[in-house]
Each structure stands twice: as C-alpha cells, then as structure tokens.
Design brief:
eight-stranded mixed β-sheet, 8 strands, 22% strand, Rossmann fold, alpha/beta
Length: 218
C-alpha cells in the first residue's frame, strides 16, 4: 500500500484563543470528509501536533477512518517554534520506519504548519534545520495569520508559504480557508495518481484570504 503521511502542526498560543473554536470546527469537517472516504483514508495518514510553551502530539499518525474524532486544540501560553519542530522530527523518525515495517511504500511526509504570531523562543532555527536535515526531510507548507511575520513563515516553509491578506480578512475566515486547503491537499494527493503510478503532492497554488510568500531567499 502506498502511504502519504500528513502532519498538521498548529499554534495553540494564547493569541489563538479567540479563533481556536473555529479551527476545531474546521478540523471536525476535515475528519468527516476524509474518514468517510476509504479510498482517501487508506492511502493517507494524519497526525496533529499543537504547540505553545511546549509541543505535544495530540493525535499520533493514524488512518482517519479508524478514529471517531480528533482531539481539540486549546489556546494558552507562548509560541515555541523550537518545541514544535523537535516533536515533529521525533514523530516522523518514529512513524516512517514503522509504516515501512508494515510493508507500505511511504512517501515523503507533508507538514501543514500554522501560526498567528512570532516565535517566542530563541534558537528555534536550529531545531528547524535539524528537522530539514533528518533522513525523512518533509515538505512544509506554512501559513501565517494575525501578527505572524512574513519572513519567518517563508523561512519555515520548504514547499509553499501563505500569509493572511491584511486587515480585510478576519483570522476566523482565514482559518476556515486554511483547513479547506489542507483537506483538498489530502484528497487530491491521494486520488491524483493513475493506476500503477505513485501519488504526488497536490497543494493549492492560491488560497482565498491569503497571499503567497516567496521562498527565494539566501
């Protein structure tokens, strides 16, 4: 079986408190859509990591068809990017070998990263570099909303990056579009390959309420 692992890494800092319920509702819709489609859920795996002062695996990598619901995100604390990247790296380095041991063909992991602010921990870049230097270097699609720093979001991403479109778009609206883009990516990536061909990562080029961030940096 071909498997494409998706990891959602979400900011749970205190600044997310006003909109965290919107994101939880969007994740409920994501679970409903993927879990009821065996063609998609069989080919993908999904994990949820939340981070604030520290990071935690709220849902370890799983076939969404095998769980009744996803854990809820809860806002509070600061914004430790370093903790997020360390927990993510540990999870990927555990999950990929385990899937291979089960006889699956595993594709490069895909990470959707979301933050509404700037990192509050110094030295997070080292944890980010360690993640990218690992054996299973993931594709990272980064989204920034609220007061997130455009250059930081562009630095985090390796595949695509998006920033909320100014004050005309409310964070709650942006969160819904973010979750919709994640859902579309899972569905399209799992269903896009022809018979006998491998899967390929399919991510929106444009997301409503967001502008693209250039990854061309030195």
């Amino acid at each position: 079986m071909q498997i494409l692992p998706f990891y959602l890494v979400c900011d749970e800092s205190g600044s997310m408190s006003g909109d965290i319920d919107v994101l939880n509702e969007a994740l409920l819709a994501l679970h409903n859509e993927i879990s009821t489609n065996p063609t998609i859920s069989d080919k993908t795996r999904f994990a949820l990591i939340g981070f604030s002062d520290d990071a935690a695996e709220l849902q370890q990598l799983v076939d969404l068809g095998e769980v009744s619901q996803l854990p809820k995100l809860e806002a509070g604390g600061f914004t430790s990017f370093g903790s997020a990247f360390r927990v993510l790296r540990s999870a990927i380095e555990r999950d990929v070998p385990a899937l291979k041991a089960e006889g699956h063909d595993v594709y490069r992991p895909v990470v959707f990263f979301l933050s509404d602010g700037v990192p509050t921990d110094g030295g997070w870049e080292a944890a980010h570099e360690a993640l990218l230097g690992s054996a299973y270097r993931p594709h990272i699609i980064a989204f920034g909303i609220g007061t997130a720093d455009r250059s930081v979001i562009g630095h985090v991403a390796t595949f695509k990056a998006f920033m909320q479109q100014g004050d005309n778009v409310k964070p709650a609206e942006a969160l819904k579009e973010f979750a919709g883009s994640l859902t579309r990516s899972i569905v399209r990536s799992a269903s896009g390959g022809r018979a006998g061909e491998g899967m390929s990562l399919q991510v929106d080029d444009h997301v409503p309420g967001f502008t693209s961030v250039s990854l061309d940096k030195l």
